[in-house]
Every structure is written in structure tokens, then in C-alpha cells.
Sequence to fold (246 residues):
Amino acid sequence: MSRTLTLLFSIVAYAIFFATFLCLIAFVGDLSFAPITVDRGPAASSTTAAVIDVALIALFGLQHSVMARQGFKRWWTRVIPWTAERSVYVLMASAALIILMTLWRPIDSVVWSISAPLAADILWALFWIGWLTVLLSTFLINHFELFGLQQAWFHFLGRKSEPPKFRQPLLYKWVRHPLYLGFFFAFWAAPEMTAGHLLLAGGLSVFMLIAIRYEERDLVTLFGQDYENYRANVGMLTPRFRRRSA
Fold:
């Protein structure tokens, strides 16, 4: 794959990701302008919908878990150029999300409904804070590298990437995984929670908790004792105000 083609591919993959990300916000938030959301879509019995939805969540989780592992990456980069590996991952992750949103079957029964205007407004604020936290977290750790653009751009320039350095920018000083924390807020902060939305939030929450364990294993391998010390003193998803002694 030529340098120009790799760069163009990465730009297209990123554009698809960003459009999918915006659609996901509308999908989870059941925003009125979205044609299909977690609570609006093709009808099915509750049992059928639950089976389909669990399978879709599992597909999404499997794609993320397998393709993010270092062993898979080592094998995969024998097939595709390493400069395009992250962009391929981003494209496949977007495809998994598109499949989930397109084939999702709502389950309409209401688990809770908050009618008090102030409480509902607080939940909506947490919903949007969650998504902003997700986006901010990606920029704190290098947004363009995370989504494959930097690798392709450096390859286009004939420039080598610097080895990763362990850093704790802003939110990462308080929690180890602010990106996942943002997703928790985004998925759970709902003034009206249907059974379908609860299934989505619960299923993706289980996936994230599992993903964090594997991700941290990779980070320990990459950064060694620096990350071990960080993990000992900074909470995974909530701040840890009492720090352990070295």
C-alpha cells in the first residue's frame, strides 16, 4: 500500500468513525431526529429482541477485544501494513457499531422514568458530560494516534513515530480510565430507562470492565513499573484520595 493510499484510507476510516460516533450519541440518547435509536426501531417480541441484542453486544465486544490484543496485532500486521493497522481497527469497530445500531431491537418496558424536571435535567447533563469526557480523554492521550491518522501521516512524511511515553494528563491524574468513565455516564444517565436501554448499558458495561483488565495487562507490559505504581495510586474509574506509599 503506497503512502498516499495509506493516508487516504486512514482519513476515510476516521471520517466513518466520527460519523458513527455522532450516530451513537443520538442512538443511545434516543434523540428525536434519529431514525433508529435504542428505543425506536423494528419491532420484535421481548425474547427475540433480547436474544438479538445480546448477540449484537457480543459481536461488538468480540471485535474490540480480539483486535485490540497485542498477539492479534502481531499476526495482523503480517497481512496489512503496520501504518494502517489502527485505521483498519477503527473501521472494523465502526462497522460493528453500525451493525449493532441498524439491527437493534427495542424492548419498550420502562424500568424507571424520572418526571421531576430538575432530576431529568441533571441526568441529561450527565449524559452530555459523559460524551464530552470520552472525546476529551482521546485528545489527552493523542486523539489522532488513537484513531490511526498520526501513523499514516508520519508514514506519508517518511517520519518515524517516537516510542510511547507514560503520561498522566489532566483527567488521568484522577482516574486511570476517564474514557470508559465517560461511557458509563453516557450509557446510564437516562431520565427514562427502558429494558432495551438497560440491556445495552449493562452489556456494554460488562464489556468495558472486562476490556479494562486486558488493557491494563498490555499497559503493564508496555510501561512496566511506572504503570504498576500508577495503578497502585490512581483509581480505575473513581478517584482514590488516599494514596498508597511506594
